[in-house]
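Shift notes (night). Ran Glycosyl transferase while the centrifuge was going.
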Amino acid sequence: MADFHQNGNIATIHNLRTRSSEDMARELASFATSRKISLVLPSLFSELEGDALPNILAELAEVPYLHRIVIGLDRASEEQYRHARQFFSVLPQNHVVIWNDSPRMIAIHKRLEDLGLGPIEPGKGKNVWGCLGFLIACADSSVVAIHDCDIVTYTKDMLHRMVYPVANPNFSYQLSKGYYARVGNNKINGRVSRMLVSPLLISLKKTIGDRDYLDYLRAFRYPLSGEMAMRTGILPDLRIPSDWGLEIGVLSEAWRNLAPKSVCQVEIADNYDHKHQDLSPEDKTQGLSRMSIDICKALYRKLAADGTVFNEEIFRTLKATYYRSALDLLDSYYDDAKANGLYVDRHQEENSVELFAENIIEAGQMFLDNPSATPFIPTWNRVHSADPDLMADMLKAVAEDLKEFV
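Came back to this:
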């Protein structure tokens, strides 16, 4: 049974197991008659070959309230795009597959680059940003949800619960963030959230002092979850990071643009599992090593923008404080796992802590060497101001791809 604890910083919408999924879906369908709800699925072509996505589509096929599903397809050839069109055709809802690597879409991105507004690097952030631009251009949705395509424990109830707080016209939330337990193969997962983000936020508070922003982030049960829903009115001014800091970046944008009472977190699953990244200790450009660096840089940039002064001494102190905090939390996670009959590899966990501690310094040095660097993609409001025809031309490019590559 879930608790009903509220932390006072943001609202927490619990799953008290007192309402059926079918009942919530019926109410969402009634909301959707006047507040259209869309879904964005950022996908690599390789995910079409995995085990998770067919089940996700089977679950989505039974969702009655979705107005449109936008699939952003990355790293796909023409033949693979044609296959993807067939693959997603099982969806009964209005849906579109955006082939991000098509000649027409490449031409759109070239126009952005010529304006100095193109995404810095390919990846999930760029994919999500493009899909949101497509939805803004469609101008017919009030709510958009986003989730990954590699969730092996996916059920349609996850979408119902994630969307409900922002779809309900009687609620004032502009952003809802999903949370859940990460348990799979008889062990606790989610190393980056547990062993980097949680102790790092504790350590930042000890090192640089109280910050409302740190309390805000600490209020989230799972700040790195890729599942969120938003009212579309906030999308044109949303700055999407193109690196692994996407989830922290979106929460930071919500902190900057919205009142705390406009943000909530919602319990969307009893258990959640998806594709796992390698730790990649030998290569800091890959896996969890790169992810940890990008997340640290995202936090440093936000704190610096709010007036925090960083230097090498602060980063060295932060590393030492983090290391102690992370080991203390490891004891708590170990005890929690044992009490629930789960396994924790303490050696592997401590290896992760040591790597993350190194990367706190690595990210700090990168920040000091180039403090003005930013991975944020320009807002769609800025894109529209620089090239008023681009969004309409993007809609046309997607439609022409759909027509030509049947």
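The chain has one domain: 11-405. Residues 11-405 form a domain with the Spore Coat Polysaccharide Biosynthesis Protein SpsA; Chain A fold (CATH 3.90.550.10).
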